[in-house]
Design brief:
Blueprint lengths: L10 H12 L8 E6 L4 E5 L4 E10 L3 E9 L9 E4 L2 E4 L1 E2 L2 H7 L4 H7 L12 H6 L4 H16 L1 H5 L6 H18 L14
Antiparallel strand pairs: 1-2, 2-3, 3-4, 4-7, 5-6
Helix pairs in contact: 1-5, 3-7
């Protein structure tokens, strides 16, 4: 039996495997639109939004890792920020505050809950994490899939350029959340400046 060294995995091949075998992106209407071997990034587009899988590399304690972010269809391939409506803003986003917004929570409730959410909390429990020991890409992809199954296309529509009213409400929600939580001067542009 051949032992495979997890450090020898090709990042693009591994992320493609996760995209197709775990996330099943084609069934959600996503098609690959961009690929960069260095640092290792795949971007998929749908009618609603963009999805970025970025290689995090190998870590002695945790194995290989990826990150997953969402962008509106105007998000650039190779940058995390852009100028939108005259201001520098973040164009790639995680899901944490989006879930609170979609649930109709108040900014105060979202600020208090922060990264905690009933859908994602089980993924951080030790028994669940052990099922994905040293397989962070599958763990993260399964979390995303669970979110998508819960919210359906409503999750993706949050990022849809065709619904500026939803995005405007989300931007206001984030502003109020960070008015409560506070902003770090070291983070430029601020976390609530999104486009």
């Amino acid at each position: 039996m051949k032992i495979i060294d997890e450090r020898d995995v090709d990042p693009i091949e591994e992320m493609t495997r996760v995209a197709h075998n775990v996330l099943n992106l084609t069934s959600w209407g996503f098609k690959e639109s961009y690929r960069s071997v260095s640092p290792g990034e795949l971007i998929y587009d749908s009618e609603w939004c963009r999805l970025s899988l970025t290689w995090g590399g190998w870590d002695y304690m945790g194995g290989n890792s990826i990150s997953i972010h969402y962008g509106r269809l105007h998000a650039p391939n190779e940058k995390a920020t852009m100028v939108w409506m005259g201001e520098e803003c973040r164009c790639w986003h995680d899901f944490n505050q989006a879930l609170h917004f979609l649930d109709g929570r108040t900014p105060a409730e979202a600020a208090e809950l922060d990264y905690s959410h009933s859908i994602t909390d089980p993924f951080y429990e030790e028994s669940f994490r052990q099922k994905f020991d040293r397989r962070q890409p599958e763990w993260l992809a399964q979390m995303q899939l669970t979110i998508w199954q819960h919210y359906g296309t409503r999750f993706f529509e949050l990022f849809d350029l065709r619904h500026p009213e939803i995005w405007s409400a989300y931007r206001q929600f984030l502003k109020e959340v960070y008015d409560i939580k506070g902003r770090s001067r070291a983070i430029k542009p601020p976390a609530d400046k999104v486009c």
